[in-house]
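To: structure desk
From: M.T.
Subject: fold request, one chain
Message: Could you run this one when you get a chance? Sequence is below, nothing fancy, just the single chain.
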Amino acid sequence: MRYKGIILPDWGKFEAGGGLNNANNVKNLLGATQAFMRQPVVYAQAFKAAAQAFAATGDGKAALQAFATSGDFPTSVLEVLQKYQHITYFDTGYEEIFNMIDMRQSRRNGFELLDIEDGLSFALVPEGQKAKVYKMSGEKATVTLDMYGGGLGWSRRLFDDEEYWSVENTAIAFRNKAYSSKAQDFYDLIEATAATYDLAWQAVTPSGVANTDKDYNAIRDINTINKACENILTRVKDLGFGITPNSEFIILAPIQLKTRLPRALGIVQQPFAGSTGYAAYNVRIVWTMMLTETDKYYVILPKNKLVGANRMDLSIFGQFDPLSYSEIAVGWQRYGGAIGELKQLVRCSIA
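Reply: Done. Structure tokens follow.
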């Protein structure tokens, strides 16, 4: 029985063509693996096009059609999207917070941020893969675009024994790890925010509400969110961001608060339909499992001086290693990021 894969749609053709003994087969396998590694980027581009189509026309059917027939999708990727293994198993919420600049067609090794009073960036430490967060300030600072890599190796015995499921599962795990590592770098920037921007759990209003009241926690939580938004607006109002009281804020929160924070945002001042809500600002929640602390959340004014850049998508380079009897493939991606103004963030407590 021929295995219908997600990287190669038909491994039977791969075998019939001589397997790894055929140079063209090896080249095609690497090319298909590269397309698989880039699939989340292509998928995101098509999703954005569909969202824009919906915003322009209000026609959900047209938007779905734009998504499904996007010219960015090669036939092989369309086949891939039909399989459950291509569900995104990594966190991309940081892309809603940071202004992600596309520098893939540039020849720059970094980008500059101006007028940084209190900021953070990350870069590779010399001896390994983990990015190190460091402080930055000054009239002008350069954010470097570093290379982040990892090895993807397949024992030739997997090909000899036609264990293609294992071959593809290894690639899936590698891709998820690579993109998750990138996301973690950006979330580490946010978690490195100084305690200067911490906000205590705000008092209940009115003050006579007992701590046994069913709305007690929700009222204190929404008062905290409102105060965080107010603090941010006050701190950045003279920085030229072009913000208004109606600007959108993002709450970056751990999944442990999934029942608590939506209740706070939905609480109303009087128990009848149409009553004014406690929420004073335009906020929405981005959930993540990549924060260290599960009893804190962040209210963030997104974009502006929260900046990231993609210099090179996850790319695969490979060769045969006779010493280990393995097909060695190494994946590299290049990106950078920085928080040019920490005043855009507030870390909030829930107790």
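Reply (cont.): Residues 116 and 138 are 5 Å apart (CA to CA). Let me know if you need anything else for the meeting.
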